[in-house]
């Protein structure tokens, strides 16, 4: 997203400008079709149509969010394997978090409900 969109001067993205609609702060088109490149969206719109492009971009966002959640879960899993919470001895490295802190972080992380559609992911991050 352009800096001008985040501050006060909301310049609509090329897609919203062409479609003559209000460009929301979380517009799915804005990162891909900046206001200064209107022909880029016009070409894509001619071939695929705005609705289909919107669906494709939204699917991509959903997939990336799922991959991010899995990557975060993998990091927590690796940390838990490296520093088990049953050990009372803190790690020797001063840069790493204490087991007590990690335990509270993992509790807050695992309290979220995550639903993952494995059919759309391809390779699982849990396989070694």
Walkthrough of the structure:
With 128 residues, the protein is mainly alpha-helical. The chain folds into 2 domains: 46 residues, no CATH class; 58 residues. It contains 5 helices and no strands.
Radius of gyration: 21 Å
Helix-strand sequence:
HHHHH
Helix fraction bin: 40-55%
The total number of structural domains is 2
Q: Which residue ranges are poorly predicted, with pLDDT under 50 across at least 5 consecutive positions?
A: 1-8, 108-115, 120-128
- How many individual β-strands? 0
The average pLDDT score comes to 75
Number of helices: 5
Into which percentage range does the β-strand content fall? under 5%
Terminal CA distance = 36 Å
The rough form would be described as: elongated
Main sheet properties: none
Given the helix and strand composition, which structural class is it?
Answer: mainly alpha
């Amino acid at each position: 997203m352009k800096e001008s969109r985040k501050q006060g001067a909301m310049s609509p993205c090329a897609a919203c400008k062409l479609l003559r609609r209000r460009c929301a702060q979380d517009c799915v088109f804005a990162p891909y079709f900046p206001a200064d490149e209107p022909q880029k969206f016009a070409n894509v719109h001619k071939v695929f149509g705005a609705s289909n492009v919107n669906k494709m971009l939204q699917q991509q966002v959903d997939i990336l969010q799922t991959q991010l959640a899995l990557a975060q879960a993998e990091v927590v899993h690796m940390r838990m394997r490296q520093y088990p919470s049953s050990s009372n001895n803190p790690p020797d490295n001063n840069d790493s978090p204490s087991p007590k802190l990690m335990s509270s972080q993992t509790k807050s992380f695992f309290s979220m409900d995550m639903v993952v559609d494995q059919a759309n992911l391809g390779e699982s991050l849990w396989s070694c």
